[in-house]
Amino acid sequence: MVCRRWGRVAFAALGVLGVVLATVQPGAAAVRSDDPPPGQFTMEVKRVHGSGCPPGTTTVVGTEDKTAFSLTYSNYTAQSGGGIATSQRRQQCVVTVGVGVPHGYTFGVTRTTFRGYADLAEGATGRLDTQYWFVGLPLTGLIRRELSGEYRDNWQATDDVPLPEVQWMPCRRGMVPLNIETSLAVDAGRMNPDTTSLMTMDATDSEVTTIYNIAWREC
């Protein structure tokens, strides 16, 4: 399997985050983005698996205007150093979301924004890996971002997908599963191995941790 790496990504200390649908200029390909359709847009967590998302700690919510949905984790932390067990250095989660859309329409993700908090000693590193895919379709490209210590602040990683490269949900009746896979990893490094460093998937200033902006089109 070959995964592309997306560019145009910001990974920085968090300022103010707005749920804004990315503005995409039409290209040469015959691909368009329609207005959100009338009817119900439903999302429901069907299954969670992994050390980063124990049962009952993950929720998904779609916005009323059908331009985005958020996935929130409440117990997702990787940590290393200071005698922390090796098993805590990398935490991973796969969430399967059941998606229901108005008949005759499909959607795809155009922007992802991941948020959290990190407390990394000098010499330590934290890493985010993530990808998503509709069941039955290929995986999207792997997104990997790193933070280097000394760092103690909220963090944010944003990835934009050009409209011609958007993976669209298959057009069929009923709910279509969407898999979202993430992992956090922390390496304490050699400079301060006795100091605990950590990276979480929940920011200190908001309950929302990941936002997926979406585009619509008719089937």
UniProtKB/TrEMBL annotation:
Transmembrane segments: none annotated. It comes from the Bacteria. InterPro entries: DUF4360 (IPR025649). Residues 1-22 form the signal peptide. Keywords: Signal. PANTHER family: PSEUDOURIDINE SYNTHASE RSUA_RLUA-LIKE DOMAIN-CONTAINING PROTEIN, PTHR38847. This is DUF4360 domain-containing protein. The lineage of its organism: Bacteria, Bacillati, Actinomycetota, Actinomycetes, Cryptosporangiales.
